[in-house]
Design a protein that fits this description.
Helices cover 25% and strands 30% of the residues. It has 180 residues and is α/β, with parallel strands linked by helices. Helix 1 crosses helix 2. The radius of gyration is 16 Å and the shape is globular. Bound molecules: 1-O-pyrophosphono-5-O-phosphono-alpha-D-ribofuranose (PRP), manganese (II) ion and magnesium ion.
């Protein structure tokens, strides 16, 4: 496979991503079997992961999306999270599973989880593809996690740098020269 010229190396290959998604889907099926639940993807980063994950979860559930952004175009979280686009479905009384591509500082999810609880969700859990626990600024432990990753800037499979690279089918480490 041809590597993008801005990518240093592959961290999670397409094959590895598929295995991770299958394994997470199995755990979710087991835990949400008897629940009336809703999968909420945080756009835009979760787009590829959510699309693959939901197809592997063999249960009846609804899906919805939110846009909550804190990064802008840089590589550091600003800490100020805002809801750019809200849910379309009511969450009152629902068990909500938030789907994220990556947890870094934890600011985005911390804000979104509180918001969903305020809206009357029965429970709010988190399924993240990647976790960078070394960068955490607010205590937050994902309920489902695909991979713990080192403190490198990663792109692909939904993850961007300055809105680029989301379409790469793998997750790769971005060359430092691109952002330094
Ligand atoms: C990125 C990423 C997570 C969040 C993680 O989203 O997709 O949602 O940052 O960082 P945090 O834990 O420090 O909050 P971003 O705001 O870049 O928007 P995007 O999903 O559209 O890329
Ligand atoms: Mn995001
Ligand atoms: Mg981003």
């Amino acid at each position: 496979m041809m590597l993008h010229k801005d990518v240093e190396s592959v961290l999670l290959s397409q094959e590895k991503l598929e295995k991770i998604v299958k394994s997470l889907a199995k755990q979710i099926e087991k835990d949400y079997n008897d629940k009336e639940f809703m999968m909420v993807g945080l756009l835009k980063g979760s787009v590829a992961f959510m699309a693959d994950l939901m197809k592997r979860v063999n249960l009846d559930f609804s899906i919805d999306f939110m846009v909550a952004s804190s990064y802008g175009s840089g590589t550091e979280s600003s800490g100020r999270v805002k809801i750019v686009s809200d849910l379309t479905l009511p969450v009152q009384g629902k068990d909500v599973l938030v789907v994220e591509d990556i947890i870094d500082s934890g600011n985005t999810l911390n804000f979104v989880m509180n918001y969903l609880m305020t809206k009357g969700a029965n429970s709010v859990k988190v399924c993240t593809l990647c976790d960078k626990p070394s960068r955490r600024k607010v205590p937050l432990v994902p309920d489902y996690c695909g991979a713990e990753i080192p403190d490198e800037f990663i792109v692909g499979y939904g993850l961007d740098y300055a809105e680029k690279y989301r379409n790469l089918p793998y997750i790769g480490i971005l060359k430092r020269s691109v952002y330094e």
